[in-house]
Amino acid sequence: MAPISFARGVPAPECLPVDLLAECAQAAIQRDGKTVLSYGTGLGYAPLREWIGERHGVDPGRVLLTNGSLQGFVYLAQHFFQGKPGRAFVEAPTYDRPLLVLKGLGAEVVGLPMDDEGLEPDAFEQALAGGAPAFLYTIPTFQNPSGRTLSAPRRERIVALAREHGVYVLEDDPYGLVRYEGEAAPTMFELEGGERVIYSSSFSKTVAPGLRTGYFILPQELVKPLELIASSTTISPSLLPEATLTEFVRAGHFAPNLERVRGLLKARRDAMLEALDRHFGGTGATWSHPEGGYFLWLDFPEGTDADALLPQATEAGVTFVKGSDFFADGQGKSSARLAFSFVALDEIDEGVARLASLVGAAVA
After folding, report:
1. Residue range(s) defining the domain that contains residue 10
2. pLDDT higher than 60, residue 182
3. How far is the C-alpha of 284 from the C-alpha of 5, rounded, in Å?
4. What whole-number distance in Å separates Cα of residue 303 and Cα of residue 333?
């Protein structure tokens, strides 16, 4: 029985624009090889920083390119917590890798509850009463792991609270452009103006993860400290992938490729929702209905232990990521993150059917 993975939050192989990127890599070397095959600055390849600055309406001097956006998170966390105590607020659930980074640095991690409209601002305000954190980390659009999106009114209120209390908000937005339906809300960075909101994104979900290129748009006071951390860590990020992306976007490939990726992944999202309705409908399970992104969140029927279910599911040929991985305090034991982005379209129904049969037996 071939394994079916709902665990991999990466684009399907057919999403990757292999031929175009090969052409762009060659063009980058031919155009600027003596630069891109050498060391650069800690901030990254200047032409790509200029394009990002144009796209977001900011001075490119505020743009930090990183080896995927997670590396930028590491730099930010080191700046605030390396050798000193402090608190960070996160969504509950949230992306598991930042949780590991924060815990490794000894930060106190405070999880704030979510519902179908995203992070609950009342919970944010109540937590602020206990003292301001170094920053709030949020993935407001098509969140990893839940697929939920923070509503526009909540974005405005969270921004207002951040201003009032002098708190940084790290808005992680790698999925926002991978929208299948609905209208996009303004980013918190756009609402606030970039003084208290740090914006991060990545080309991993829109072009190719193997290019390992993400970016941060920083308030001016954080540029030099993070550039120093970056320079002392890697000297400079890898310039060839960044130059390849520069050729890709300047040649006009970004928008049509994004539209192609949206179509490929929307079909998978639709198939996943249909399969969940078919195999979990009426069982007491509930799940999110994302308008874009790579993931959805499944709450199993009452009485299901996802931690215990995972090895059984793996043996039966279907994998997922257990919900407890995404909480600072180990909640989520009856939940799972299901990634629909990587699995083949014709495997989705079978994978959900295998999972449902195991859950039915577990709670019978």
Report:
1. 4-15+256-363
2. yes
3. 23
4. 10
